[in-house]
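Internal QA ticket QA-208
Title: Verify multi-chain structure generation after dependency bump
Assignee: T.L.

Test input:
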Amino acid sequence: MPTSTDLLQGTLDLLILQTLSLEPMHGWGVAQRIQQVSKDALQIGQGSLYPALYRLEYKGWITAEWGSSENNRRAKFYRLTATGRRQLESELETWDRLSAAIGLVLGRRVEAPR
Amino acid sequence: MIRELLTRFRFLIFRKKRTEFDEELRFHLEQSIAAKVAEGVPAAEARRLALVEFGGVERARAECERQRPAWWLGTVGQDIRYAQRCILAHGWFSLAIIATLALGIGLNTMVFTLVNTALFKPVPVPGGARLVAVSNRDVTQSERSMRMSYPDLLDSRAQSHSLEGLEGSANLEGVLSEPGDPPQPYHLARATTGIFSLLHIHPILGRDFLPSDAQRNAAPVLMIGYAIWKERYNGSPAVIGKQVRVNEKTATIIGVMPKGFMFPTTVDMWMPFIPSTDELKRDNRPLEVFGILKPGIKMAAAQTDLDDIARRLAAQYPATNKNIGAFVESFNDHYNGGNIKMIFLLMLASVGFVLLIVCANVANMMLSRAVARQREMAIRGALGASRWRILRQLLIESLMLSLLGGVLGFGLAAAGVHWFDLATSTVGRPYWVQFTMDYTVFGYFTGLCILSGLLFGIAPALRFSRPNLNQILGEGARSIGRHRGGTLAAILVIFQFALTLVLLTGAGIFVHSLLRTLDANQTVPADQLLVAWISLPEDRYKDDAARQLFYDALLQRLNALPGVTSASLTSNPPGLGSAESAIEIEHARATDPAHRPQVAFVTASPEYFSTIQLPLLLGRSFSALDGTANHSSAILTRATAARFWPGQSALGKRFRFFNDQGKPGEWITVVGVTANLAQDLMEQDPKPLLFVPVRQEDWNSVSLVVRSTSNPTSAVRSAVQKLDQDMPLRDVFILDAAVEHRTWYLHLFSKIFIGFALIALLIAAVGIYAVLAQATSQRTQEIGVRIALGASVRNIMLLVMRRGLWQIFGGVALGLAGAWPLARLMANLPIGVSPSDPVVFLAVTAMLACAGLVACWLPAHRAATLDPVKAIRCE
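Actual output:
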């Protein structure tokens, strides 16, 4: 049985990059934000969130630094790097192309890409 | 992009701190709990829910760690440490594998290096791979090759269109002397003047030969080799232009050849070949001829080319060249063909066997180990190890074993090659045969051995690492006799024993004939006899009378030396060969000239028989008169006398020699009969031996034989010098050393083949031992139960040994079938063996069976003496 991380890895990375592109955030924040924005449809398992964050950091697309949270707790904040931003753009493009194509095949009307 | 790489590189080297993840996690959980409390969940419940939601903490941590670039490198370190522990824990087993690999890699590298060097490596001159030797041969007798005459060489060179050049050389002894330096003999080549430019090798000092140097009235010139230049002339550049004497004729040194150049074989110095009147005849064939194939021309094409030329010459000069064909062969085949090639190929075949045994053994041990470890693999699999991880760990373990074996093997090969190089340095091998380590070959065999280990170690492990964890784990220690790797291991062991037997037979045959040569001529006091050769220059010793005068004076001086019991002359001291001739016996039925009886003969001075202590059984020894005109006489050995005059006294009987042209000589009268003597030690069926007086054959080279209580070398040397200060003493030996020198290859190859065979024996014994021991230790519990239930020592021993005994039996049977053709093949070698030597077969079979029995007995004995209480609890 393939793990969900395997299936979703590319998508999860994209979601994280997109979320972080707005502002630097800690892991909990990323998870919450994705959940909120997707109206609770996407619940990120914590077991896959952190590996994904680490992976992106190792790739140099995001960097982490320690800061203090809203309630003055020490927390690790992730921020998109320049490379990460470029990566996000190219992945968004790919995503748009792909979803449009899939939509066409499935016969669904889709909004025109941005 | 660069930034990305830098980031990756940074993380490759520095790992994140473990606390970093912990802290991040704690923060996450706190946030999660806080969010739940805010929703109204009680604090304790919120904490529980948060943890449940998060899932496995350790798993997440491991997952995060795994994201790190090159994360797996760290686990390789773990694998290496684990492999180390495994290797050390199974010390003997590991040692057996390492030793086996080392021997396999070492021996094969060594022998392939030797064979490649001796049989295939080209002469190290530009275009050496295209260098060929050209000989003549009598087309009516396909085997014999002959040298070439000077006019034929010139014609072939002019007409050939497949060769870049054709040059010839005739080797002889050249005594180099000049005022103030003692005369010294060297290997001299009289070579056609183009020889160096054909090879594109130029003198490092002075000039090359010029065509004008070969003209009849040219001033004699001499090219010296590097060794003479360094040793005799201290590397002085002033040597160019120096006047020296070569074989008592003046010559001028014109050049020095580069270091190590001794073309064609072991030549120390060269002179231009200036043909004498005799040498301008086509039936005088003194030259060894070599050429270089034009690029792209095959040997066969050159053969056709030279065949055509030979045919034209035969038509043009039927008197001398009728039935004379040409024969082109590679340089290696020319100098190292025939028996040498045969022995080397035999060596190659035997290490091939060793290699097979090694591979089979490594495979077998790995297999038995893999079987023994299937539970371990199953447990690791059950704990979540991936197949790749298990595979990698085994791979690393095998590689470490192989690496250790390889390093040892390398040392072994290097030492072996060096030893062989030393051992053959005095046997007149061509200068371009240099035995040095061949790294390509080493790499090849290392690869092969390791591969066989990996293949057999990993394949079964992989099979066990996968399915049926439950079955294997559940079976546990109570598995009785299953998965013992049964048939495959048994076949491998049988195969090993068969090959070992074949090898042992080969070694046995060598040893047997070696023993025979050591056994020959036991009455001759070989350790007290000094032998040395002298040559009487024809210029100063023109006839028989002059030579006899010198011999008489010399023998008188030698006999007067302190410590010398007896001194005499012969053409061939005991065991050092003989001349051959066809004879005709008086009053015997006339026979067809092709079927005249052949004899071996040596010359002897009157005192010879007492010097070598060969008893005279009948008649008398030679007198001073024997061998002079009308007094041709001979002394026969007992076997010879019985062969030609069975049942009657040979004394007074007459026979005569025939020379090469088939013309009869004088009638020779038999004057005495001696005990038997072996002259041709390696001849399986030696020709009848007889002695003739020294003066009866007008040879100008003779061997001194001096029996003495102490080593008289220097006294003998000065005695010769006092008579003739220009006469060097050559090849001075104590007789047993001379015999050993002559039979060097029997000694050398006996050692080598014994080595191979013993190693094979050892490996095969270790192999059967390791497999049985492994199998037995797996059955420890079962054996404990059997002992507890009353099985006797005998029962247990039989239980364990039965399998081993069957394998030994099968191996021996199969091996004997293979050894038979080998023995027949070796009978063709000139080492004096008969094809069906029952002693050898019996001896080696017994030896192999004993080794096998001991190897089986050890684990069986250990099993039988087990303490049943401990055995049952074992695991």
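Spot checks passed. The two ends of chain A are 36 Å apart (CA to CA).
Status: verified.
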